[in-house]
Design goal:
This protein has about 575 residues and is α/β, with parallel strands linked by helices. It is built from 18 helices and 14 strands. About 40% of the residues lie in helices and about 20% in strands. An eight-stranded parallel beta barrel has the order 1-2-3-4-5-6-7-8, surrounded by seven helices.
Length: about 575
Amino acid sequence: MLKFPATKYRPVAPVDLPDRTWVNRTLTQPPLWLSTDLRDGNQALIEPMRMAQKLRMFQMLVQIGFKEIEVAFPAASQTEFDFVRQLIEQDLIPADVTIQVLTQARADLIRRTFESLRGVRQAIVHVYNATSPVFRRVVFGRDRLGTIDLAVQAATLMQTLADEQPETQWRFQYSPETFTATELDFAKDICNAVLAVWQPTQAAPAIINLPATVEVSTPNVYADQVEWMHRHLAQRDRLILSVHPHNDRGCGIAAAELAQLAGADRVEGCLFGNGERTGNVDLVTLALNLYTQGIHPGLDFAQINDIARTVEDCTQLPIHPRHPYVGDLVFTAFSGSHQDAIKKGFAAQAPDALWEVPYLPLDPLDVGRSYASVVRVNSQSGKGGIAFLLEQECGLVLPRRLQIEFSQIVQEVMDATGAEMTATELWQLFTQAYLQPATPLKYVSHHSSELPETQAIAVQLQLSDQLITLTGHGNGPIDAFINALNWDLRIHHYEERSLSQGSTAQAVACLEIAADWMPTAGYGVGIHTNIVTASLLAILSALNRHWSQLDAATATRLLQRLATVD
């Protein structure tokens, strides 16, 4: 049993900000993006990426459109250092991309970091030190002034080392680590002290990053903290306010979105939320959330499956099947009512209209997902989902009553197996049920001719081991064949459609037949390049499907009434 929490945990104090403005704002543009997949994301892996994997990830991030990429903690290991050197020496950094590297506020690490960047065209050096009371007291044994002095010494050294490499366009970033647990007045003071050393300009702004190193409260509190800093930081017009939300409470996305409303210009995170412990904010979800609101995020996720497979391969971490926008099941509906609504939504959706398909906030095609994943069939599914799959994957449009009829066949299989049924398996079952029955009557050939006021037809069929020829007249080939059978058949519904496009397009005929001797009306389906042949096959399909339900006397009587035996 959980302990009574009040004896062990205390809530984070709210921010005194009664005139907060973020609650009345709306996102209208994307933030500046910083991918830290190669640094924060990499340090979170059981097996950190090898050089080849890091390069593959870097190149993919560039292709997506990231202009700022945190590539390493070069003072942490030789591998990290070597990767930065590889990017620089092999000229792998595009001219419009700025790499960022991270260092703690320690002189030896800062010097090693600048050494790794020698010769780079442009770079951001990101320095941090922890600022919250528990870190000051327990980890570093420093008071407020001592903690500020540590940050100022680091900022001063960075400025000195940058001046020694004037060929590089330098930018600096400072993070008060554990910001969310730091007193706001102290967070302001230490950031302002660093900025006083760097003296940023509007042309060369510094970056102040406010990390939710541990997410300690609700997203609205983080937004209040960001807005408070946005208002009180010195030289605000000469700095970029960045946020780095983590996901300890599962609110990383909300925290990042509210932080932007509160004044943040930039967001740091990882693809699909990778990162140490519970992960960083998920930049894919954040970007596509904007996209569904009509705002282009400035990042290209049009082939999200390829991106997901690359990330999984490089990180050896699986993406959850229900992960927003990219999970294998995220666009998938199994429920019959959901499937029916989706099918109707697709039918009503005009190509150039605003997107309004039930249950789908995003058109899967926009991110390179096929409609095959939208509806999948299991024991919870209904006719709408089955019909949707046959239409999308096989080009077969079923009349509504045929949808109901076939769904009952599918449901029997589902109840028996309990397994999911793919579009291919549905087509196989449909073929077995409607296109393959050939007992007792199998189509062989036909010939029709136009007469002055009617149409004549001669149809050759196989009956057991005999060939028989039926002849008849009517107002069309279907009516003529019905008359030739002489079985008192009635056609309740008939549809013909094209199964595919082009000169080899196949015609699909679906018709519902009834007769007094039939237990119930039922559908038959025929597919052929010739529409008349398809219609004859549909009639035979309906008859053969119901033949097993007849008693022996009725079956014998019907066969005896066939007009001509050849």
